[in-house]
Design goal:
By secondary structure, this protein is mostly beta strands. Helix content is about 10%, strand content about 60%. The chain has a single domain (about 1-15, about 25-205), classed as Porin (Beta Barrel), CATH 2.40.160.20. It has an eight-stranded antiparallel β-barrel. It has a three-stranded antiparallel β-sheet with strand order 10-13-14, with no helix packed on it. The longest helix has 16 residues, at about 1-15. The protein has one helix at about 1-15, and strands at about 30-40, 45, 50-55, 55-65, 70-80, 80-90, 90-100, 105-110, 115-135, 145, 150-160, 165-175, 175-180, 185-190, 195-205.
Length: about 200
Amino acid sequence: MKVLLSLAMAAALGAVVAPAAHADTNDNWVVRFGAHAVDPKSHNGDLAGARSSISTSVRPSASLEYMITPNIGVDVLAAWPFQHDVKLSGLGKVAKTKQLPPTLGINYHFLPDAAVSPFLGVGVNYTNFFDTKSAGALKGSSVSIENSVGVAAHAGIDVKINPKWIFTADLRWVNIKSDVKVDGTKVGNAKINPLVYGVSLGYRF
């Protein structure tokens, strides 16, 4: 995991400082606005000996991509804070939390001049959990979820509407694993590892 994380960070940061290789220096930026779902995997680890599950959340999203070459772009993903319910087997909902998952990545666009262009990418994700509140059986207790840093994989397609406008459908897998504490005591590790999928409308400038 540490090797993958280091490679992802090196690739993304190296691309940021690399000189632009466009013959045409115009329209190197793509800004996208849309909506994405964070869909955690089905089994999210055991907390205090009970199986946990974390709900899916859908929120407005935005990304900014800089095209270093016609094929290679560096992008940053941001979104309105996602909100998730945390449930334990036999106890139901025990907490709710919010999180922001900014992700820096580098993408390879296979057919940049075609009407439909698939792409693949890799990146680094930082997930910040905040405003975590206890509920149900844990009501009144202090629940905290630690922030997470991990790798992210990216795949999608760009559909060219015209030279300026792009429709994008994409899918990310994000490595998110966080310690969970109740009243300051670690009760387990939340293995979220969600799929993040959505659609957006992009504009080149």
